[in-house]
């Protein structure tokens, strides 16, 4: 990977961070839970990417990073669904 490619990729990561922060800050708090539920379904794509990264033969840096990404992405998706379920339980009528 050349230095130019690394700078472009770093630029994209920083720019997407700023755009994501601005988009999330404009959303009213009442919409965060449904939006979280929808984005957790989309975040499953991260798990697929982590599986591809960890599928390398042998133990390399990319395999270790892929396994770490798989672990963190799975925690993100599962905890998002847990939080959404807890929020929805608040709206159900008590027996």
TrEMBL record:
The chain crosses the membrane at residues 6-24, 36-59, 65-84. Its main location: membrane. Pfam families: PNTB_4TM (PF12769). GO terms for biological process: NADPH regeneration. It catalyses: NAD(+) + NADPH + H(+)(in) = NADH + NADP(+) + H(+)(out). It comes from Parapedobacter koreensis. Residues 10-93 form the NAD(P) transhydrogenase alpha subunit C-terminal domain. Signal peptide: none annotated. GO terms for cellular component: plasma membrane. InterPro entries: NADP_transhyd_a_C. Keywords: Cell inner membrane, Cell membrane, Membrane, NAD, NADP, Translocase, Transmembrane, Transmembrane helix. The keyword Cell membrane applies. The transhydrogenation between NADH and NADP is coupled to respiration and ATP hydrolysis and functions as a proton pump across the membrane. This is proton-translocating NAD(P)(+) transhydrogenase. GO terms for molecular function: NADP binding; proton-translocating NAD(P)+ transhydrogenase activity. Its EC number is 7.1.1.1. It comes from the Bacteria. It is a multi-pass membrane protein.
């Amino acid at each position: 990977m050349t230095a130019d490619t690394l700078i472009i990729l770093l630029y994209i990561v920083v720019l997407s961070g700023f755009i994501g922060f601005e988009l999330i800050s404009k959303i009213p708090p009442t919409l965060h839970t449904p939006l979280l539920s929808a984005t957790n379904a989309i975040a499953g794509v991260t798990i697929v990417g982590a599986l591809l990264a960890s599928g390398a033969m042998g133990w390399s840096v990319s395999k270790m990073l892929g396994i770490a990404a798989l672990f963190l992405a799975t925690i993100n998706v599962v905890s998002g669904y847990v939080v959404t379920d807890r929020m929805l339980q608040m709206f159900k009528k008590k027996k």
